[in-house]
Each structure stands twice: as structure tokens, then as C-alpha cells.
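Slide 14.
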Amino acid sequence: MASQMLLPPNPLTKSASAKLFFTGDDSALKRKPKHAIRVSNGFSLRANAALRSNHSSSVEIPSQWYNIVADLSVKPPPPLHPKTFEPIKPEDLAHLFPNEIIKQEATLERFIDIPEEVLEIYKLWRPTPLIRAKRLEKLLQTPARIYFKYEGGSPAGSHKPNSAVPQAYYNAKEGVKNLVTETGAGQWGSSLAFASSLFGLNCEVWQVANSYHQKPYRRLMMQTWGAKVHPSPSDLTEAGRRILQVDPSSPGSLGIAISEAVEVAARNEDTKYCLGSVLNHVLLHQTVIGEECIKQMEAFGETPDVIIGCTGGGSNFAGLSFPYIREKLKGKINPVIRAVEPSACPSLTKGVYAYDFGDTAGLTPLMKMHTLGHDFIPDPIHSGGLRYHGMAPLISHVYEQGFMEAISIPQTECFQGAIKFARTEGIIPAPEPTHAIAATIREALRCKETGEAKVILMAMCGHGHFDLSSYDKYLKGELIDLSFSEERIRESLSKVPHVV
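Slide 15: predicted structure.
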């Protein structure tokens, strides 16, 4: 059976921002010849699919980002100044972010227009395909219908450019010359390096040391796009030197890398900081995923019963789920919305909901979030993008309000699911979305037991072409499950600031 998907357009058609809708109709396969569909970013797809079926549609790139805060009756708690513990003011963030980003971080507007310059760059890979995983369904012998929204076709191979491009654009527009950031697996760092190259900006990246050594080709991607890349912790910053004094072989963490990047931005007037997850404006930019997906699912004539995504900082999960939560709040749909995190770094399922720093050194504002403690350093699991001590404040708030649920899954089960997915759907997933795949397989097998024909929608946020060393370890039987230490978490949580 052919997978159902939204295929990218032929660039010779009039609209470069639309994608044609196809269904996996086997009878149509016998009637139609093969067609080479040219993708705007230079790849080609050989499509054994009908050019027309009973359903036909085009999906445009959304012209606005969606801000879920506007629709929440209980607003999220404000971030606090790290020294005074008073609500943060816009001027307190001016040394880190451009004015437009600061406005977006605090806005109560429901929709924010996407600048034309950003939309033009989005057209390199958006809209992204929604694919029905029929072969995976067949392997699992489930009555469930599984769909995945695939973000791996971007230049950087993940969803991260959805926010990197507007962040680089707003900085360039305000005359900023240098950008600094952190990255875990390298997907965010490579995305910001890509975006910076388009706007003529210098880019410097602190990559978590464990991933820096595990994933050398991500580093090379960043360098190819012109970025400077350092393993974190490094001896280039005070924050890094303090960590190395305690543990010279520290594997690093996103919290440490954030501290280093923020320190550099704070001491250089011509430099701004960019963040790839956690903050409101990042989640805002990612809602292009869910806005597209709603229209695509409608074109399929489907409504999801379960929506599943992996969570580290939360940008990919929020990008897909927040527009659906809006529809849920309106009473139009009532899906189960499930976040999946690694068992070795379970901030939602094992952390506390409290004000904490977003970085290890305590340089960032205090944010009300689910946290394992800002100096918690997770074990070096292969999902580098999920090794963060806290959850996005907005996702934490939505979780506290009861609009979603969360589970954790160990990495060996995730890679088992990834192999099934790769051998049926053809895409080798990044280690991060393997958590969503594992949870989807669990749900599909439950449907097999109950006979329910649920519609499962999954976020597939990126490919794993630069993560093959992780697959190598799994296939050799060398990958083991790493779990959090209750004692380590208790020690880390004891250092969370006490905010009255």
C-alpha cells in the first residue's frame, strides 16, 4: 500500500507555497504513470501515486503564528528577574534579544503576522508533508490510522529553522552583527548557522560536549554555514571554567551551554542571544507546524484522537499541539495530547513545578516550569536535544491546567520503534522523535487489543542521517538504558531558588 502524504509541488506550477494533496489509493497506482516531483530545496521524489483522487486540495504556508496565551483563561506566571525576583521588564531582556522578540515573548495577541521575508525563506521547505504510515500500521496489525507530520525536509533536517529564520531576521533588521547560542544534538545550532548565513550574521555556537563528540557531522554542518562551534563546557567562559574545575570530563548539558552563550551575549554590546526552545516566542514560531497540519488532516477527512510528540525543551511538541489545543478549547475536538520524554531526563513526569533558572549558572530569568533543578546534568543519552533540566514554561502551564498528559520512555524501546519505522516508512528518524514513535507504537498496539480504530497523529521532527553512530551502537547491542538517579535529583532540586 502506498503511504498517504502531501507531496511537494513541481516548481513549474504557479504557487511555490502550496503542496498538492494525494491519497494512497492502490487502484490509482495501477492507472497512473510515475512522476518525478521536484522539491524546492533541490531534492527529487519519485512518486508512485495518483495525481488526482476523490480528494484534492492545496495547503498554503500559514501567514500568521498562533499564540496560545491569548486563549488561556488562566495566564502563565511571569518570568522573574534573577536578582530581585520581581517580574521581568522588557528592558531587562534588551541585552539579550532584539525588541521584536521581546514583544513576542510577552504578547497577548492571538495571531502574529509572519514577515514576508521569513515566508519567502519558509518556501524552501514549507509546507511540510503529512504522511499516513500505512506500512507501519500493517506491520503492527493495528486498526489505528497513524499519521506523522514530517519536518525533516528543511535545510537543517528538522523543525528548528521555523524559529531560527525569524530570530535571525529580527536581529538583522535591528542591526545586530553577531549571534550566539547553545545546541544539544546540533539541530538548533545548524539551523541558526543556516539562518545567520542568509542574513549575513556571524554565528557562534556552544554545543553540549557529549553531542559535539558523538555527532561530528552536525558540527561540520554548522561550520559549513559559517558558524564557530565550541564544545561545552569550554574554557572560554567563566561558567564553563567553573564546571570544568569540578569535572574536567563533564559531558555537558543544555543548561551549561546556555550559560556560556548568555554570558558572551551579556558582555558584548554587538551580540545577541538566540534560543532554540523553551521560551514563548520560540514556541510561537513553531506553530506553523500545527496550523498546516490542521488543514492537511481536514483534507484527509480525519480528526486526531491522539496527538503525540517528544519533549525536551518543548518547541516541536508545542508547534504541533498548541493549534490543536486551541480547537480543543473551542469544543470542536477532544484529542488526548501526549508528551513523551526520555526516562533519563523526565522533567514533566518526575520534576517539580517551580521557579527555576533556565541555565546552570543562574544567568537567565527565573521561569515557572517543571524542573529537575538547574544544575542537574542528565546522563549522556543519545537524544541530545532532550537533555534539558526543565520544560518550556508555557508547556508546563498547559500541563498543569490539564490540557495534556506526559509519559517517559527509555531509549532502547525508542530505538526499537525507530528501526520498525525506518524499515516500513523509509525514514531514519533522529533520536529525539524516536520517543514519539515508541509512544505511537504503544498506542497502536493498544488499539489492536481493543479493536479501536483511533486516528493517531505524531510529530516527526527530524531525520537521523547525522545520528547513525547511535544506530550503530543499538544494532551492535551496545545501547543501554540510562535512568535518572533519585538521589541526584533530590540534590539538584534542593538548589532550586525559593520564591514566595
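Speaker note: The CA atoms of residues 262 and 351 lie 24 Å apart.
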